[in-house]
Amino acid sequence: MIAPEVVDIVEEYFHGKYKVEQFLESSEFAEIYIVRHVFLDDLRVMKIIKEPFDINSNLNFLLYGARLACKLKHENIIDINDAGIIPAGDKNENDWVYFIMEYVLGGDLTPYMMSFKESNILMPIFWGLSLIKQILLGLNKLHSSQPPIVHNDLKPSNILLSFNSEYRIVVKISDFGFSREINSNMDNHIIVGTRQYMAPECFKNKYYPSTDIYALGVVFYILLTNHFPYDMDRFNLAEIIDGKPWKSHLIPPSNYNNNVSPLIDEIVSKCLQADYNNRFLNAGELLTEIEKCFRKSYLHLNENDYGMNNAMKKAFRLAKYENNFSEAKVILKDYDMGEIFEKVMNFDKEQNSFLSQTIKLKTSHNIKSKEDDFLEEQKK
């Protein structure tokens, strides 16, 4: 539900340029809306920081992540269009910080992961490698910056999926609210992140480019197996800080998926090393290894695999961009993929009539995220 005061504030401040179309979500720090640029007839996303801005607020801190994202122009990184301060109409009230970003129609990675789990099938290796490669291309833009930038909150809900004119899925890394330059003085005073994707050093408030590699390793593991590498809910914070989860043996992905090669097992294991020095040091190093796997995967693809890959891309584009569900399902009929496709689409429709993205912040404890639902599924 859209609060009337938000509509009034936005329309008044922007003189009718933006119209608030739909509420997306609320987090501990912000409210997020889909807005329409009236003159361009273009959908975008507006995030309004909940913390009122006043003379005692640190504007640099509030906009730090957005400023980093603006430096990182790349196909696989979300675009920030605008940012600023909306002045309060009443001198007794505080101003509000906002920023506007591109609207990504395809949603985030979580429902796609969940749909494979719910359908009791594994994602084809070729698809998983394709997603990981694109994430790494965007992540490499961060890690190769001077100074290097650590995303520090990489997880499926911050990996958005768009589509290009050739029906190809395009990954967009989003939410740079916890991102930091390596030489930044803006140290966190609290531990931030999502426990299941946090490397051991995160719980000691330290971060490196290889911290992002660990989080990506968790995502990669799930794409390959429909399981998390470690059950972090079994441990309390003191045990995690002591490194207890990582003292147990990591079950290799091939234990769940016979199509996982020894090379991929080795890569995932290295990503998930407890010691950050033993992982791939940055996205560039890991990308080189993924390219090797990606090339080798072509050797095992037959004509049906290529056809199914192209069919899935076309079907999702028809459904997401053109709202043409019937034709999309017909395309997938011959590949027995109609069930998983329908689950993904139904999941999106239940979440949002716009089949929207979800640009996640650190969710408050009383808001159950899609990733929480996924964790519950893992326990069943």
Characterise the protein shown here.
The protein has helices at about 5-15, 60, 65-70, 110-120, 125-145, 210-225, 235-240, 260-270, 285-300, 305-320, 325-330, 340-350, 370-380; strands spanning about 20-25, 30-35, 40-50, 80-85, 95-100, 150, 160-165, 170-175, 180. It is an alpha+beta fold. The strands form three sheets. Strands 1-2-3-5-4 form a five-stranded antiparallel beta sheet, sandwiched between helices. The protein has a two-stranded antiparallel ribbon with strand order 6-9. Strands 7-8 form a two-stranded antiparallel ribbon. It is globular, with a radius of gyration of 21 Å. The two termini are about 30 Å apart.
Secondary structure layout plus pairing:
Layout: H1 4-13, E1 18-26, E2 30-37, E3 42-49, H2 59-62, H3 64-71, E4 80-86, E5 96-102, H4 110-118, H5 125-143, E6 149-150, E7 159-163, E8 169-173, E9 180-181, H6 209-225, H7 237-241, H8 262-271, H9 283-298, H10 303-322, H11 325-332, H12 338-351, H13 370-379
Antiparallel strand pairs: 1-2, 2-3, 3-5, 4-5, 6-9, 7-8
